[in-house]
Amino acid sequence: MFTSTAMGAAFLAVFVVLSAFFTTLSQGEVAVNVNGDCRGVFYEGLGCFTRDFPFNNTYELPQNPDFVDTTFHLFTRANPHNGQPLSARTSGGQGDVGGPAFSRQLPVKVLIHGFLQNDRSPWVLEMAHSLLEHENVNVITVSWGAGAGFPYAQAVANTRVVGAELARLVRLIGQQKGVSLRRFHLIGHSLGAHVAGHAGRVLRGQIARITGLDPADPNFSYQPTEVRLDSSDARWVDVIHTDGAPFTTYGGYGTLQPMGDIDFYPNGGQNQPGCHSDTSVYNFVSDAYREGMTNAEYAMACSHDRSIMLFLKSITSNCSFIAYQCASAEDFRAGECLRCGNRPCPSMGYRADMYKRSGQFYLNTLSHPPFCGYHYLVRLTLSEDMGSTNGQLHVQITGNNGHTSPLLLHQGALTAGQVVSAVMLSPMDVGHVTSATLTFTRSNSYFNWLSTSSTISLSAAKVEGVNRRNTLYFCPGSSEIHPGRPLQLRNGTRRPGNCFRG
After folding, report:
1. With a threshold of 0.70, does the pTM exceed it?
2. How much is the pLDDT for 95?
3. Catalytic residue from among 185, 198, 304, 394
4. Catalytic residue among 130, 143, 190, 426
5. 304 is catalytic
6. What SS3 state is found at 70?
């Protein structure tokens, strides 16, 4: 529990964060190159960097590589815990950049952190270990912590020089080890996703794959493709969006803009389950007061970091994060797009490139590891002659393997003829659906004074186990659902009856 002094310190910390966000550092300032054709700064071996369009998304030039101090470490099954330093700054390009631990026969996975992090950040090490346990690969971590700090706009500019340094390393490995660019997979979080994009662009889009884990939004969204991660940066680009709510200092760090060949939007791409849906100063200070500053900082970035956790679980668990192509999150939630034609639905995460699908795909995830579950669609048609009411509808789905816990189907107004439809997620695979139980809880709010009924009258229902493509239709004959008296739907058919128009 914080004392009043600690509470004041929390407010001070918030003020410092806000102030630092908009100020500039004097450290590592770059000197403008006024000689030659470069209208900005020229760094040997990396090229010229300017503020000319389209790179006017910030007013900063990339800092000197000596200040940014980008370093690379190689992890293999022979050295899974102590990374071997790599350098692309060998004299004249000579020297063994990979050393004996690097295997030219194996794929190369490159991990790139984002803002305020480095290659010792827990997720980087955990993902390196998970990749090595899952598959025999070379893992390279990229650390640019000195250039990834405040002010944010400077870190944005530094992504360009870090991307150029990474591209130089990849080229050198290719030259010395004979490793094709098609063996490289870059995985970047937040600003790291855009670092990967810059590297891929320098390499003319020839690397095999880039995975963007919630690419950073500020200074990148809806900028020209040269500035940010884009599908042209690799032969295959997949993106996971988890924090695309409107940006504030306390959340919305990721972008909703599609940036890949395939873009995944778990839970609509924002406000992940188990995280604050309201990111505000109040919540930050409340968390700091109750749980300490470190936990408050974690809560701020909860949705942003969820992309990392989902990708990790796609490596380490048996989960299939099956996703469905939709025009919008609203269409997905309403169950309007739960088929993938005559091709398999793609799985979000590590195995996404197995499917080579393109477009925007949606899915739900749970609030706790391993985050995956089973999707169910329930669609009810209310009777034309029922009165209006307000409350919550829950459904429990039963199959030959068991049943789900009660799932929230609808909350709010319910009126005559209304179609209530939702896609829900449960950790339980019930098998083939056999029945469903509906429960209604009437709201006690002011708005229910205007209600004309305390019950719901149901004329048709559809219950589908989406993952198994197993559907039952029910024509209950204007059955009523009374508060506190569940209605069980039984004796469903595999084809819609005359009552069903949803």
Report:
1. yes
2. 53
3. 304
4. 190
5. yes
6. coil
